[in-house]
Amino acid sequence: MRKPGVIFLLIFCLLSVFEDSVFTRFGGVFSANAAFVMVPVLVGAWLIFDRRIFKYEAVVIFCVFLYVLLSLLMLAFISGYDLRFLFDRGLRLMLVSFMPIFLVLYFARYSLSELVAVLPAVALLIAFSYVLNVLSPEFMAGTGMVHYTPALSPDRMRGFTLEASHFGFQLSCVFLLMARVYKKYALMILSLLFLMVLYSSSKGALVGLLVAGFSACLIFFKVPIATYVLSVLGFSFFGYFFWGDFLYSVFSSDIEQYTSVATRLAVMFTSLISVIYHPLGSGYFGFMPAIYEYGPYAASFMDSIGLGYLNLAEFYLYLQAGVAEGVSTKSFFFDMLVFYGVPFFVLFFYGAYRIFIPMFLARDVLLVMFFVYFFVAIFSYVTVESKYLAAYCFVLLVKLSRESGLSDLQGSVK
User: Fold this and answer.
1) Which of 116, 184, 237, 414 has its CA 20 to 30 A from that of 255?
2) Residue 92 has pLDDT above 90, yes or no
């Protein structure tokens, strides 16, 4: 595929900010992102003008093809379900899981300087959506020009995404990268980001940022454990008096009313239990049966460890055979764990290690903060099917990590 120019990349990334576009009506989550309309153009340009496939792309395509065949083979051993339903859902899940892979390969064809060049424009558009959310929350909560789906929680910010957690992820990823790229203004950008995320009421983004910040302090500033613990206690004490009522309302309302915390925990346990029974994964067509069959075990386990008070009403809906809408683990990591099993587990952490080491050796604090946040997010509360910017941010992370490693190597030689 011939690499289009930076202008094309800019347009693609700006459209990627809109994750709940009117195109949702055609293919659901598969076509929800506004940049979806440009994907056929990318494929067409490759078929007509280039047709080159790099070695690493060939390896990825081969592995995907191999696992599609394995998933079809697994389908032959599934019984007790409507095979037409399983094939239909499996095919949808397959297409959805292909999109992040395609996008990573697409963004990887651009150089680091080209990827960085479009970052400020993307950040400005996201900031604009934030301001628009503050000035006109009713407009952003409803349907119309920028949203196809009504807000699930109208009292929470969602920008141009589907819901608050998605917006918090988008906001945090782009502005953490801005802080890394524009180091001179890093403190100002990080302070602004924290306040924006705090006010947006995205619990996952807030916790992820705190974990990323404290992790960077532990790794690079050699903070003694006692000092770290005292800092956490001090921050908690400060937060209790200044933000206690706000934070309590954010988390307690979710636990008691919206059920997302309970549902996320339940489907994560379901994913782990499914791997025990299927170490090689359940494949695309076995995903739904894995949720139906191992979900009750997850609910019983949560009850046994004292989490029975959580509202599992939404999760119990997932366990009815034939139910498909909204059924997922709510996390990229745990979705992939059900699909691919232990091989994905090993590859995920090996890849994370390979990305982390260069930035760690180069003592790149800001990049480590983004790395921790990004992996905590996709591990715990974010799926990436309609989040095209996740692929962009991941590729930028990898290229920045390599740059840090090269800079460290050159410094050592000198």
Assistant:
1) 237
2) no
